[in-house]
Design goal:
The structure is a homotetramer. The first copy, chain A, is an alpha/beta fold. Chain A has 5 helices and 9 strands. In chain A, the strands form 2 sheets. Chain A has a 7-stranded parallel sheet, with helices on both faces. At the A-B interface, helix 4 and strand 7 of A face helix 4 and strand 7 of B.
Amino acid sequence: MDKKKFVAVIGGGQPSREEAKLAEEVGRELAKRGAILVCGGLGGVMEAACKGASSEGGITIGILPGDDSQAANPYVQIPIVTGLGYARNIAVVKSAQAVIAIGGSYGTLAEISHALQSGIPVIGLNTWSLARNNQQDKSIILAQSPTEAVNKALDLAASQKPD
Amino acid sequence: MDKKKFVAVIGGGQPSREEAKLAEEVGRELAKRGAILVCGGLGGVMEAACKGASSEGGITIGILPGDDSQAANPYVQIPIVTGLGYARNIAVVKSAQAVIAIGGSYGTLAEISHALQSGIPVIGLNTWSLARNNQQDKSIILAQSPTEAVNKALDLAASQKPD
Amino acid sequence: MDKKKFVAVIGGGQPSREEAKLAEEVGRELAKRGAILVCGGLGGVMEAACKGASSEGGITIGILPGDDSQAANPYVQIPIVTGLGYARNIAVVKSAQAVIAIGGSYGTLAEISHALQSGIPVIGLNTWSLARNNQQDKSIILAQSPTEAVNKALDLAASQKPD
Amino acid sequence: MDKKKFVAVIGGGQPSREEAKLAEEVGRELAKRGAILVCGGLGGVMEAACKGASSEGGITIGILPGDDSQAANPYVQIPIVTGLGYARNIAVVKSAQAVIAIGGSYGTLAEISHALQSGIPVIGLNTWSLARNNQQDKSIILAQSPTEAVNKALDLAASQKPD
């Protein structure tokens, strides 16, 4: 399994139908391209992405906040049980070479922030946009479709770490 | 020391001169009003706020990321040594009943996000502004001056937890 | 408050009556000697120690595992709310210059281990003893009474960090 | 990959030659039996176990303390990058249905403690033994050989979680 790319998919536990569809498509596309999916392991965007990846035979890792691997969605193959609450979000993004954010609320924003702080590229689909001191911050790379998001994520992941 | 209010001051390690001045003034004002200052314990905005609070005899808590209490700025009276890296940011905001954000980069944004996720009010001075799906998110309460920031923080802290 | 010594008191949430008495006496003695008490903030040994310290006007810090400062025992003056589960145990011991362990179960043993791993001296009252490969490990310094435990803790704390 | 058993192998970063041999044999045996190996991802016992597992085509997960996946030993296929320091030890044991401890120092003892605290069975090879209040604690299940350790771990893992 060496030299595989790890891509995190982050987003809310209660996505819109459109966001869930995007997430599933992102998961599918990542699996087709041989990338390993990392996520927070629970429902919503995380589950949809894992479902998509699984449908294409991809590998899915769920880094869980609680104490029980049974909390993982049914498409998580490798549950990492942290017992660390929201601190697990840091591990989700740090374990990836690129992050795709879909929709999401403040938890997703925290993950986006942790990724940017760690120099890990973030691709956004219908998600947060940022401004600092009234100046737009363009660190989140916009994508218009799941395929574009995955393309950008894999390109950036490749430039992140030597293959 | 019961019934004291705990207010977190968050912001970057390398603030502009203006931001450092704002932070020091916020620290001073919090101490005058009897609030306990919580921060990440290091330099920049954290140090300036602790310096201000100390100058008025206030109590300062620094929740440190590393393994050494000596890393705390000289105005931290109560160093909490976590060894948990950025996960300490979660403890900084959760230990407060209100958060004042001054300037800051992605680490500050992560702290803002964790606070909002936990329902802890955030007052912003020259800091991030947020939009989700192209709609402005007004969760960060704007303040124009340190005094206004402290007033709002203490009002909101009071409504947060029963005195 | 500078140059104060920080001493952690660790032990189980459901101590025997004897252990609770020891913990309260340790807390009282620490406060009399001007040390700041650090603990996990909950019930049992933690509460008894905080009660003892409070009765002598000492300062008490409770580093909590959950998301709510209301979970702190009533004698905690400075609640640190981590949301990090058992990882907060690491912060409890790392924030101290010496640790006093009273009774306790596996959580206490984990804290003892983290302290020893970090080079922080551990004084034991009716607590765990260790052997490795069938050779006794004498790292836990035994004490026969609360006063002896506090004496040893403060002596060792003094040698730990330059005053 | 569903229904796989996850077994953690824990132990020191600087094992004796004998301990390293035991770890490699444990890793090999786990892989032969189809279990997934979880560890802290670094050198010593962790690396030896991963090497053994890899030599039999097993899957290896390394949950790292730092910020860089490059710190993983070369036999880790799935690096989880936490940035959480020793708190990652909690995730190592919680992600497993049984733990095999080989030799080790205080870090290993902390992991043993976290496992026992969480009700996860621990099998010991040349490792710590425990006594509480001068009474031996028999929670660590002794094994005399790598094969016996793996047999016990897999039996206990099976009884832990419904297949």
